[in-house]
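Q: What residues go here?
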């Protein structure tokens, strides 16, 4: 009996195990918050930060007039602290920002699990609104699920670096919806987002950040499957914060509606 097939299977098994180990190790390193992100969890001259069991709350020392607040869901597997610099930037503009802690970093469906959404809603009810809800990557799925579950408590939805919603429809959503996408992002590419266009309301608007990739929407390492950005991380963060500030201010986005997508 030939022995080549058992040997080939053994090689495949070993090679697959090594590839999986490398991928897991890469993810374990890549999804960690940067030193800048860790530092952003401390109080600054303009922002006070406090941690709760389910979130971090970034409270501006001086709030903008009639300010909305932001509820933000982190990307799947990403340490939520990686979004602290973005939350600082939002709060520095006079808007409260709440960064949700998702169980298991959103793995195994925990990002959009009912318990996660209920816990986030309890925070918004305690702090008081009005609220803009947003999320990056898998966090965009959580944000969309939250907006579908609590439409009356959402003034606007901002989908950052995500092609969600993919499995729910927000076509009849009464609130404003904005997409923020990078043209160097293969994980949430413009084409993938376009495929789910029919799940969003006709008044949805889109901002495309030219040179932006997937990983730089947060402050963590280079995510597997991403492309290198053609803009600095701080510039991408600032552009994302500007989009969020537009939604929080209740203004119309500067770029065209989805019917003129590019």
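A:
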């Amino acid at each position: 009996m030939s022995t080549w097939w058992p040997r080939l299977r053994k090689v495949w098994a070993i090679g697959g195990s090594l590839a999986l180990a490398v991928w897991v190790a890469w993810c374990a390193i890549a999804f960690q918050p940067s030193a800048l992100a860790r530092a952003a969890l401390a109080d600054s001259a303009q922002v006070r930060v406090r941690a709760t069991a389910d979130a971090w709350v970034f409270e501006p020392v001086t709030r903008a007039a009639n300010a909305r607040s932001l509820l933000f869901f982190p990307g799947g597997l990403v340490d939520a602290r990686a979004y602290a610099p973005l939350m600082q930037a939002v709060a520095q503009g006079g808007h409260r920002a709440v960064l949700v802690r998702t169980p298991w970093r959103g793995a195994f469906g925990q990002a959009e699990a009912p318990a996660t959404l209920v816990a986030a809603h309890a925070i918004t009810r305690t702090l008081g609104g009005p609220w803009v809800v947003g999320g990056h990557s898998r966090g965009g799925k959580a944000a969309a699920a939250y907006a579908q579950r609590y439409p009356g408590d959402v003034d606007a939805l901002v989908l950052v670096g995500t092609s969600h919603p993919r499995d729910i429809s927000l076509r009849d959503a009464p609130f404003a919806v904005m997409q923020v996408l990078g043209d160097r992002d293969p994980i949430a590419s413009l084409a993938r987002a376009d495929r789910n266009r029919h799940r969003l309301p006709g008044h949805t608007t889109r901002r495309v950040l030219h040179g932006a990739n997937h990983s730089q929407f947060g402050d963590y390492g280079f995510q597997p499957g991403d492309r290198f950005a053609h803009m600095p991380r701080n510039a991408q963060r600032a552009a994302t914060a500007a989009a969020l500030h537009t939604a929080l201010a209740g203004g119309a986005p500067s770029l065209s509606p989805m019917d003129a997508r590019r």
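A: Context that may help when evaluating the design: The mean pLDDT is 89. Helices lie at 4-30, 35-39, 84-92, 114-127, 138-149, 190-195, 233-249.
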